[in-house]
């Protein structure tokens, strides 16, 4: 049948319209599929209750894209980039090389590769989607660059599991609202325009999902902060509740329990307090909700310990991975400390360790998986709680130390008070129980104590034992070289070392038997081991027997009381010696007093002997006058008798009588002069105390200067000195004439010695001169004796008034002259005797108070 052209045209039009309707229907259906897929993803996003569930949104989005028939092999959803760190959080979903599904949450680098730089730069600028076709090598380079924040071994595993394709079509769609990073999709085939539009719609959806993720994250941060605050507050409250250093173990256990409650995924946790000078640590380990009692170890023996030490010294947290040989070596080191600690580590390829450092030490956790930011934050807060607990512990330890020191000081004071009250050797019986009582009051746990006195000359040890209540067990005499325990005790005493030994039960029985053999009761000793401690002091050892070894603190208390007992026993020994030497000391004292009297008398006699010749010379003058006038008187008497018998001339008789009267007066005058000289000599030699009275000081000085001068002339006929007298009419002073006379003679005699020594050294060119002067000064009178001798050195001048100090050769002086003169002036007369010296000579200055009106 013939067809009209118009029919063909109409048929073509109908076919074209039908095709258009089919395309519209397909587009409508596809649009409905996309909307349904978006609804499913959005529903999944709304179901997210925790920020960690955002990875499920990425998986739902990948499944939706695959369900729409798009050849996508991997998508990556990125959070807001951190420009400073050059990274961003990322959630990746896709298939691996075998077509199996895989997904993970990680951190992607945003720089380091041109493709990464362009992807995140466009995402922030709101540019159109970025499209790149990548060869397999370029795609692997992209994967490695995005994983730059992870170890290379981790990137190797990701690349090995990457989906396979001849070429990879990389699409990065920026988030329009810029709340998040880009949506990156990798296709195994080139995507069409519909696929790009679909990706853009999913990118908008992810931006909304990421906003929900951020809201959840903020809420979780607030909740976590509250939980952390509550946990830290509970730990700090336990620290504040500590009443003594012994409560630290429980406070550390609270830190561990709170760490577990906060969900930190550890199979072992260690808390350690470091000691910098010794590189040691006091540590607590936990495999559950409590911490084991502390132990001590050095922080060395493995690279992990070295890294941990450096981290603490620099106060930087440490993230460490133990794997392979390093893990095996660490577990071996752990077994050496405590096999139970190593047993909690399951055999694994690696162990992740995170250590939080605080000033006191570290808080370290061991886990089979890496530590998240949340767990690190929890550890940091609980590390701070441990630091606060340890600071409280140190404060309590210092308080306890001060209280202990105060108690120990009080104990020592009480022992010393008992010692001070000792008056006889028998009082030791009061002091010994006091030491035992103080040990009990200080809380030192012992079942027996005593004092071991070592008698080296006798080769014996005397043991004085008592029970803790101070009841005496008695005394035991033992040889110093047996049994072996006593020999060891004596050896430590000789070295002044503390001996601490634990006797096994059989040796405890032997010790009890030894006490029983000495008549002492050993029934108080424990049936098990006995810890003995011997603290040495000068005369022996303080002994304490206890069921267990004493702590360092208790041992120090025993040693302190041993030192205090040393004083008591020394005082006891002093009393013993005092009783034995009383008569000897009394006799020695009597001999000393007699010797002192002899020395004083010797000094007096020495000065008297020196003056004997001078005194004789002084007496000779008045005696010559007496003899001459007596002879003249005889002649005048004979003439007077002749006149009386014959014819007497009255005038001549009167003249003769006048002459006889004048001679008698002169004889009387010179007789009194001789008598005065003799009396002065007798006073000088007299040993008793002279009478105090008013004295003419100028006359006394003049007379004794003459005595000293003539005495020296009598001893040495060639003695010659220019004697200058400047007696200033000072009047009367109150004093003892004989004592002040001795002072003048001693000072003038010393001046004569000084000028004589210089004359002998310098010869005729030197003119020896001694000047004696008196003068009135404020409040008194002054006598100055000056010489132009060689002077004194500073050392001699400082000691010149010391008893028995002399610069004269042996046998030439007693060294008492100036000392006696000093005592006479200052103690006997309330004056002052001083010395001035230089190269030009020496001056002694006597200052005396004026006589009372």
Could you please describe the fold and organization of this structure?
- This protein has 853 residues and is of the alpha+beta class.
- The strands form five sheets. Strands 3-2-1-6-5-4 form a six-stranded antiparallel beta sheet, with helices on both faces. Strands 9-8-7-12-11-10 form a six-stranded antiparallel beta sheet, with helices on both faces. Strands 15-14-13-18-17-16 form a six-stranded antiparallel beta sheet, sandwiched between helices.
- Helix 6 (193-240) packs antiparallel against helix 7 and helix 17 packs across helix 18 (737-762).
- The chain is elongated and about 230 Å long.
- The N and C termini lie far apart (185 Å).
- The mean pLDDT is 80.
List the helices and strands and how they pair.
Elements: H1 5-46, H2 54-67, E1 72-78, E2 87-95, E3 101-109, H3 114-125, E4 130-134, H4 136-146, H5 152-160, E5 168-173, E6 183-187, H6 193-240, H7 248-261, E7 268-275, E8 280-286, E9 295-298, H8 303-314, E10 318-323, H9 324-337, H10 339-343, E11 350-358, E12 361-367, H11 373-420, H12 428-441, E13 448-455, E14 460-466, E15 472-479, H13 484-495, E16 499-503, H14 505-517, E17 530-537, E18 540-546, H15 552-645, H16 650-685, E19 692-696, H17 697-715, E20 722-727, E21 732-736, H18 737-762, E22 769-777, E23 780-787, H19 794-799, H20 817-828, E24 832-838, E25 841-849
Parallel strand pairs: 20-22
Antiparallel strand pairs: 1-2, 1-6, 2-3, 4-5, 5-6, 7-8, 7-12, 8-9, 10-11, 11-12, 13-14, 13-18, 14-15, 16-17, 17-18, 19-21, 22-23, 23-25, 24-25
Helix pairs in contact: 1-2, 1-6, 2-6, 6-7, 6-11, 7-11, 11-12, 11-15, 12-15, 15-16, 15-17, 17-18, 18-20
């Amino acid at each position: 049948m013939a067809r009209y052209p118009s029919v063909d045209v109409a048929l073509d039009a109908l076919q074209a319209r039908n095709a258009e309707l089919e395309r519209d229907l397909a587009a409508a259906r596809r649009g409905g599929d996309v909307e349904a897929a978006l609804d499913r993803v959005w529903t999944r996003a709304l179901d997210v209750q925790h920020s960690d569930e955002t990875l499920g949104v990425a998986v739902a989005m990948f499944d939706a894209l695959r369900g729409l028939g798009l050849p996508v092999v991997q998508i990556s959803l990125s959070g807001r980039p951190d420009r400073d760190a050059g990274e961003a959080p990322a959630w990746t979903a896709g298939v691996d090389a075998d077509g199996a599904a895989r997904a993970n949450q990680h951190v992607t680098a945003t720089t380091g590769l041109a493709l990464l730089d362009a992807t995140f730069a466009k995402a922030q600028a709101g540019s159109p989607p970025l499209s790149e076709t990548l060869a397999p090598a370029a795609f692997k380079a992209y994967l490695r660059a995005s994983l730059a924040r992870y170890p290379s071994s981790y990137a190797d595993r990701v690349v090995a599991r990457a989906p396979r394709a001849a070429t990879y079509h990389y699409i990065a769609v920026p988030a329009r609202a810029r709340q998040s990073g880009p949506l990156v999709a990798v296709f195994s085939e080139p995507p069409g325009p519909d696929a790009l539009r679909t990706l853009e719609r999913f990118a908008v959806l992810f931006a909304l999902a990421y906003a929900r993720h951020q809201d959840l994250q903020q809420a979780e941060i607030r909740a976590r902060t509250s939980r952390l605050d509550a946990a830290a507050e509970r730990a700090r409250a336990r620290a504040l509740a500590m009443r003594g250093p012994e409560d630290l173990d429980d406070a550390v256990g609270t830190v561990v329990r709170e760490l577990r409650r906060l969900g930190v995924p550890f199979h072992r946790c260690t808390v350690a307090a470091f000691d910098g000078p010794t590189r040691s640590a006091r540590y607590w380990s936990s495999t559950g909700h409590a911490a084991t009692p502390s132990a001590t170890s050095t922080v060395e023996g493995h690279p992990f310990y070295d890294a941990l030490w450096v981290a603490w010294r620099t106060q930087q947290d440490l993230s460490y991975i133990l794997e392979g040989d390093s893990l095996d070596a660490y577990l071996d080191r752990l077994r050496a400390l405590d096999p139970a600690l190593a047993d909690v580590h399951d055999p694994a390829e690696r162990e992740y360790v995170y250590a939080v450092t605080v000033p006191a030490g570290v808080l370290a956790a061991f886990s089979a998986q890496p530590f998240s930011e949340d767990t690190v934050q929890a550890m940091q807060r609980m590390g701070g709680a441990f630091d606060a607990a340890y600071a409280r512990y140190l404060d309590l330890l210092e308080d306890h130390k001060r209280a202990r020191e105060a108690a120990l000081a009080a104990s020592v004071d009480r022992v010393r008070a008992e010692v001070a009250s000792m008056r006889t050797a028998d009082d030791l019986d009061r002091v010994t129980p006091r030491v035992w009582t103080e040990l009990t009051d200080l809380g030192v746990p012992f079942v027996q104590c005593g004092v071991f006195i070592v008698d080296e000359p006798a080769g014996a040890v005397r043991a004085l034992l008592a029970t803790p209540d101070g009841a005496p067990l008695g005394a035991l005499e033992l040889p110093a070289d047996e049994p072996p325990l006593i020999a060891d005790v004596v050896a430590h005493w000789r070295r002044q070392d503390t001996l601490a030994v634990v006797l096994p039960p059989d040796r405890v029985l032997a010790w009890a038997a030894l006490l029983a053999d000495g008549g002492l009761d050993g029934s108080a000793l424990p049936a098990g081991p006995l810890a003995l401690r011997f603290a040495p002091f000068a005369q022996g050892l303080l002994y304490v027997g206890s069921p267990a070894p004493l702590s360092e603190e208790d041992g120090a208390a025993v040693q302190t009381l041993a030192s205090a007992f040393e004083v008591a026993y020394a005082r006891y020994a002093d009393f013993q010696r005092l009783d034995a030497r009383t008569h000897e000391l009394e006799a020695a004292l009597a001999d000393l007093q007699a010797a002192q009297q002899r020395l004083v008398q010797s000094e007096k006699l020495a000065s008297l002997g020196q003056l004997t010749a001078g005194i004789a010379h002084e007496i000779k003058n008045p005696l010559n006058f007496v003899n001459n006038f007596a002879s003249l008187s005889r002649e005048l008497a004979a003439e007077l008798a002749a006149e009386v018998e014959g014819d007497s001339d009255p005038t001549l008789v009167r003249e003769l009588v006048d002459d006889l009267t004048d001679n008698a007066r002169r004889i009387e005058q010179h007789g009194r002069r001789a008598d005065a000289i003799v009396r002065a000599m007798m006073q000088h030699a007299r040993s008793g105390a002279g009478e105090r009275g008013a004295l003419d000081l100028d006359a006394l000085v003049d007379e004794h200067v003459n005595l000293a001068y003539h005495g020296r002339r009598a001893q040495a006929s060639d003695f010659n000195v220019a004697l200058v007298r400047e007696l200033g009419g000072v009047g009367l002073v109150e004093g003892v004439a004989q004592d002040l006379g001795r002072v003048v003679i001693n000072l003038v005699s010393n001046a004569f010695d000084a000028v004589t020594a210089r004359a002998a050294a310098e010869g005729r060119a030197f003119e020896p001169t001694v000047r004696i002067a008196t003068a009135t000064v404020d409040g008194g009178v002054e006598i100055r004796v000056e010489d132009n001798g060689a002077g004194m050195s500073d050392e001699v001048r400082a000691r010149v008034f010391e008893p028995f100090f002399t610069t004269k050769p042996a046998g030439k002086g007693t060294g008492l002259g100036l000392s006696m003169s000093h005592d006479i002036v200052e103690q006997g007369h309330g004056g002052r005797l001083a010395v001035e010296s230089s190269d030009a000579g020496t001056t002694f200055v006597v200052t005396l108070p004026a006589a009372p009106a």
